[in-house]
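note to self: dont lose this again. the chain is below, predicted strucutre after it. 659 aa total, dont forget to put it in the shared folder this time
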Amino acid sequence: MKYLLIVCFLFQLSSFSASAQEFKYHTVEAGETVYSIAKAYNISEEAIYKYNPDAKGNLEVSSKLVIPLSSEQKQTSAETEDVQFITHTVKRKETLYSLSKEYDVEIDEIKRFNKHLYAEELQRGEEILIPQRKKAPGNTELASSRELDIPRDSNQEISETREHVVLPKETKYGIARKYGITVKELEELNPKVDVLKPGVMIRVGTDVLDEPVILTDEVFEFYEVKPKETLFGLSRKFDVSQDSLISLNPALEDGLKIGMVLKVPNTEGSGGNFPGDAEDMAGDSENENPNKKLDLSGKLSNFNTKELVVLLPYNLNQIDEDSISSYKDAILDDRVLRISLDFYSGVRMAVEKAKSFGISTQLKTYDTRRNVQEVINIINTRDFRNVDAVIGPLLQNTTEAAASKLTQYNVPVISPLSNREMRSYQNLFQSRPTDDILKNAMFDYLENNAVDKNVIIIADAASNVIKNELTQILPNSRVILPSEAYLSAEKIEGILSETQENWVILESSNIGLISSTTSALNRLAREHQIKLFTTNKNAGFEDDVVDNQHLGRLNFHYPSVDKSYEDMVPEEFIEAYKEKFDMIPNQYVVRGYDLTLDVLFRLASAEDLYDSFEKYTGFTEYHENKFHYTPKQNGGFYNDAVYIMSLDEELNLNVANDQ
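---
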């Protein structure tokens, strides 16, 4: 019954979610060109390129083009506007989004004066025009042609410089970082400037970061690299991964240098790295700790209606609208459809819950039909410019396609369920931790808690890589390498300790080895203290051959994306869902609820989703899932919030880590 209600609702949505813009498909015939098609529909060629970027090349016969039938043509001439231009040479890793932020101009404005960007990506080395409204004298960084980056050794003098007008409260450290130089080099370029004062013009380098000079920040501070410091040591010092440090400081890609000014997490009790900056750097201690749980429901301030789009692979085009039996057959036969419907019902529950906090949401959902081209068509034929966030699609290729297309509007795309490593897009948020993140979370747990324990690693040949990683983290551990899919108690007993607690790490997906090892450990646990761990709770541990009672007695520990919903979800949520859909919610329902409520709370507690991660660095947690997004090195974000779950003798699941 629940599925029928949701499917019917989705069919009804088609009449409400249609855009005011009308479109049609045009099938290309032999001999047709973009010019002839544009003339036939009385539209411009650029209008066709806007919705069909691939049409820039040769048109293929029988291919389909999206044709806007009633779009308004904006043809304002550049000559009639009060505008001036910067000629910008595109550098490596620059995007339209980064340029729009650097020059404070809309992406659409850049495309407007560089028509080819409607259909093509930025190319390194090409020159484009950046429009700038004419400013009154006194503004910082007046329009001028940008110079190409020239790699510079740390011992070379700075031969090329540009001017920078000091703004209120700027420091030498923030300015040095922005322009890729050391504080000493900045002082050498400006020997007569002893104290920075607002309005003073100074000389700086030309290697400019794609972000403004940062002085005060609740989340970050500056740190000057000292002799003999390493990237590994700094990552430990500031409790942040090396990848995150590089993401925060792109100059690190060329290596760590003495005197570099880095942007690092503003840790509590750092004492301040620079004179005069301590007061400016002081932030809200509640938000500085990434291991602190946040309750965003008490920080809501932005109550504008949220534009939320859900993209899911319903594949409704294959269902007969007039046949209830067709609904039932499709749902029973199609696991992806069932997951999509469950997830979407959780989304709707979250939207209703958000209303009780004063958050209004305009929710739209579209059927991706599990097809990349359909995702592109959806985005091309709807207006996504004011969308606050897109949740979905489910599959990797369609998610990447959505993120790629929506980069132009900087619309956040949240991947809800995929645990595969995805391509880096600046607007892509991977909300489900990958297997590597789960593994590393267990590595951290073992490293932090295995002190004074007798650690034994049991790994088959297929787990050799993980075994090597574990021995590096736990150098005093002992290793057993089974040659067969069976391990006896005798082979384990000889290296067990009778005075220490024995932590056994089992790495295998072989059902026979898992079953025999857990059975042997269960017998040995009568005379020894034994706990069982794994970095990967795969299907082998779920097999009926493996006795759950044995796992419970061994206090089995494993990393998990979520908690067990049966034990953790509040009774009132279950009852509310049963009343609405006449069914018990499953893990996909709860996932849809948790993820959507987190997105809505973040949007309502900050200017936008990106701003929320700058303001609040702790993790959020709901019924079954928690979220802590970390920047990826090449763009985008991933959720690294992981549970370490443990099973007790009564087969109850508990959370072993509280971070």
